[in-house]
Amino acid sequence: MVDLKGQYDKIKDEVDKSIFEVLNSTSYINGPAVRQFQENLEKYMGVKHVIPCANGTDALQIAMMGLGLKPGDEVITVDFTFAATVEVIALLNLTPVLIDVDKDTFNIDLKKLEEAITPKTKAIVPVHLFGHVAQMEDIMALAKKHDLYVIEDNAQAIGANYTFKDGSQQKAGTIGNVGATSFFPSKNLGAYGDGGSIFTNDDELAHSIRGIVNHGMYERYHHDVVGVNSRLDSVQAAVLDIKLKHLDDYSSRRQNAARHYTEALSKSEHIQTPQTETYKPCDNSNGICDTCDCHVFHQYTIKIKNGKRNALAEHFKKNDIPHGIYYPIPLHSQKAYKDERYDEKEFKVTNQLVDEVISLPMHTELDKEQIDYITSEIIKVVG
Ligand SMILES: *Cc1c(COP(=O)(O)O)cnc(C)c1O
């Protein structure tokens, strides 16, 4: 699915040198490498505060702790995402409210979102699934109207740009009150181990979060709040700082690969290719995608409309073509998150997506020849 070795080989000299610099510095935790990466990421994202932490799941949890959400508060998020999103809501004894997604973008359904808001709702967690930014302008307007926090799960969309109706742009993850991302190796900005980060433009929230990641300490050995231990280590920061310089190039490589896939797969009436305006002139009026750079293709995920998804997966397996089914089970049907509040009728889209979606190899080293081979195999099976 990914070619991390091919990517590493191209930056090996730079990366190895900076790793050895950290080893020689012996400043393995919170050293200058972390500080430097933090500052460079702040510049890149156009955000006031980047707070590095140990992984993307922690980033989401700490963001929610920083906002002071309390047990019983309802937090609305999507039924179709990686479990980490709902896991941290449940861990903090907040009440997860899972809702259906849009059938074309796989992102939060705005109508369902508005319907799900109750007097107990305190926050919304949009997930920029597969690298495609959710409709943030509308989400922010709704949040303002109902006085809710917005926590962006940006684990899959780092580097994506969101364009507002007035033409201004902001990076995904910096639009809500707070954003969280993951540097898991296969993510678009991947470390060589675990890592994560929190984004905010809110000075007070940033201060609060900086204490929470460090055992609730704002002054050494004074523990003002219950915190956690969540750090990005210096070796990972050094690797990430190098890869950050390549992130825009990595995104455009992914977008190019997506363009080749879409060109080849559009020939089949049984395949729905990802909904995006990334490589077409922007059309804000369609209400689906607001910008030309709003999809960074963490995954290239198609829908197989004629019931042949499993046959295709079998064919891939037999021919050693990597693929993934993200996600095979909707969260509301997972043992850990089942709840009598949920009504199957409310999850029409996710219940169908789990039978139709399949993700194709997607990474920065993919070439046209590989894509031609993969797409011709798909058409063979699906028609
Ligand atoms: C990867 C991911 C996370 C969690 O990130 P980790 O660094 O693995 O903890 C959270 N949300 C989404 C949508 C993800 O894809």
CATH architecture of the largest domain: 3-Layer(aba) Sandwich
**Order of helical and strand elements:** HHEHEHEHEHEEEEEHEEHEEHHEH
Cα radius of gyration in angstroms: 21 Å
For the biggest β-sheet, the strand order reads 1-9-8-5-4-2-3
What is the count of distinct domains? 2
- Count of beta strands: 14
The largest pleated sheet is described as:
7 strands, mixed
Strand content: 5-15%
Tell me the name of the CATH class of the largest domain: Alpha Beta
Query: Helix coverage percent of residues?
Result: 25-40%
| Global geometry | globular
Please give the alpha-carbon distance between the first and last residues.
23 Å
Under CATH, the topology of the largest domain can be stated as Aspartate Aminotransferase, domain 2
Give me the CATH superfamily of the largest domain.
Type I PLP-dependent aspartate aminotransferase-like (Major domain)
Output the number of helix runs. Answer: 11
Secondary structure: elements and pairs:
Blueprint: H1 4-25, H2 32-45, E1 49-53, H3 56-66, E2 74-78, H4 84-91, E3 95-99, H5 110-116, E4 121-125, H6 136-146, E5 149-153, E6 161-163, E7 169-171, E8 178-182, E9 196-200, H7 203-212, E10 217-219, E11 222-223, H8 234-265, E12 271-272, E13 300-304, H9 309-318, H10 348-356, E14 357-360, H11 368-382
Parallel strand pairs: 2-3, 2-4, 4-5, 5-8
Antiparallel strand pairs: 1-9, 6-7, 8-9, 10-11, 12-13, 13-14
The structure holds pyridoxal-5'-phosphate.
